[in-house]
Design goal:
The chain is α+β, with helices and mostly antiparallel strands. About 30% of the residues lie in helices and about 15% in strands. It has a four-stranded mixed beta sheet, with helices on one face. A hairpin with a 4-residue loop joins strand 3 and strand 4. InterPro entries: Ribosomal_mL43/mS25/NADH_DH, Ribosomal_mS25/mL61, Thioredoxin-like_sf. This is Small ribosomal subunit protein mS25.
């Protein structure tokens, strides 16, 4: 498989991308990370970009994600909101886990909000759904479908027993 080559190819699998915890609040439009390649104080930011940035991009498709390498002496993260406000997060000498936890607490959606959104996304009132817990117990209750064979017998040309029989 060509996508399983390179450094840490696990980062390109769907299981890994779906495992991301950080989902931004709806008002965030731009997320930028600035760090240097060299230096001990940039290690956490480099690892954060390497391990968590693909998950952030996958989980937040409407947010523009930028990385700025070797432009500033100290690493930082800046979030831009749709109303023009900005949040500056200093990530100097922090580990990748500390950075992620700080972002989860400041700009990430809470677990309760994520659970409520997932329940709303299921849409249990969809007319195509049928079975236990839905509007219709059987698909035969939907207009245009063949009635249940227990209530109305199927015509003989629709039954396999008669269709497969040769005269």
């Amino acid at each position: 498989m060509p996508f399983m080559k390179g450094r840490a190819p696990i980062r390109r699998t769907l299981d890994y991308l779906n495992a991301g915890k950080l989902v931004f609040k709806d008002k965030i439009r731009i997320f930028s990370v600035a760090y240097n390649i060299l230096g001990q104080n940039n290690t956490g930011a480099k690892e954060f970009v390497f391990w968590y940035l693909p998950q952030i991009q996958y989980k937040n498709p409407d947010v523009q994600v930028t990385t700025l390498k070797n432009l500033t002496p100290s690493p930082f993260i800046k979030c831009y909101f749709e109303d023009g406000r900005r949040i500056l997060v200093d990530v100097d000498n922090k580990s990748k886990e500390e950075i992620l936890e700080h972002l989860l607490n400041t700009v990430g959606k809470s677990k309760e909000v994520l659970e409520a959104e997932s329940v709303a996304a299921e849409k249990k009132d969809n007319s195509a759904n049928f079975g236990v817990g839905c509007e219709r117990a059987c698909i035969c209750e939907t207009y245009g479908q063949v009635p249940c064979s227990g209530v109305v017998p199927l015509p003989k040309f629709m039954r396999g027993k008669y269709r497969n029989q040769k005269d």
